[in-house]
Amino acid sequence: MARAVCAAMADADGGGLTRSQLLARVQGSWPAERLEGRLDLFLRLGLLQPYLAKAHQQRYVLNPAGMVGLLIVDRVAERGGVDELYVLLDRARALLDSGTASRADVAEVLVTSRSMLSVYADELARLVDTAPLGELIAERRNHDHARLFDDIGRLNDLVSAAHPDLDAEAYRLVTEAQRYVDACYALIERILDEGGQRRDFSVLAAEEYLAAARQADVDALATVGRDLVWQHAEPWVDASDLEAACAARARGRRAISRPSEPPPPPPDDDPLAALDARLSAQRRRRELAAEQQLQGASERELTSALRGLPWEATAALLGDLLALDTDPDAAYHVRTGDALFVDPEGSVTYASPFTLHARRPAFEEPDDASSSRWEHADGRA
Predict the structure, then answer these.
(1) Residue 138 domain flag
(2) What's the pLDDT tens digit per position in 200-223?
(3) Range of the domain at 170
(4) How far apart are CA 95 and CA 102, in angstroms?
């Protein structure tokens, strides 16, 4: 609710919002009576401030400290609040260095820091005794104690120089810091023991493994695989199995004989005569195909028949008929037209008129050469 109220107030056009405007912007996710009570609480805490110092006025603005507080809450929830301890120690050292810190301020910093360390030490001890491994790993990343003793040592030197009568409180701070560090080590020890038994490499971050590989000595790195058991893989077959398999294959193998050579051709075999025979057989096959299309007629229009065949059969038939047309010994010729039939859905997409004739017509003697060429070309088209 605090986040929703802050977002609604931040999106205001200026001059704040009235109570009814604020309710209209944030209600819907919670019951109205619960939201009303929470707005009264925000007014008492100072998150919402009256725009005018008048009784019963209903326009409010947002206290900037409220939005900063939400950011601090997010940081504490993410890092566990340990960073706030370092901020407190850094601020105390800065005040002592500048000479502006009073005895009461220094005493308050020592007590607050010791209290925070005591609470964190108790919480870590509880987690070590009760929490599962995953929760321990998540908590461990929130506690970086590497610089803690250095910061507390510098603070103690400043306290001893400025306020020697607070040495007892400073000593109690060091004692509590030692208990907190011991709790951190106990946390890490349980993570390493339990994670090592599970062979779980997620117990440390990738950066920590990289740092260990770069900075650790050879003896320390050699202990990583000290307790691992290694066993060489056994071969799938031994020598006796291989020998038995080779013997069985040799027994079942058939001898391969070379095929006999073909008999030599007879001495009277004439290759030109064989070629003429093949050409005659080919012409006979084409003439039979033409007669099959004519079906006893002297000519026939084949356009529809060709368009109805599969395109492979159409191409083969056209090739045979055109070959007969160009063969001077064949008595068939074809005539094509200039029209174009287009059928995108058919097997033969494009076709022209095509007519097959059983006998080649006799050409009339032309009067001149140009007429002869025109009639000859038209007759052979």
Answers:
(1) yes
(2) 666 677 787 788 888 888 888 888
(3) 80-222
(4) 9
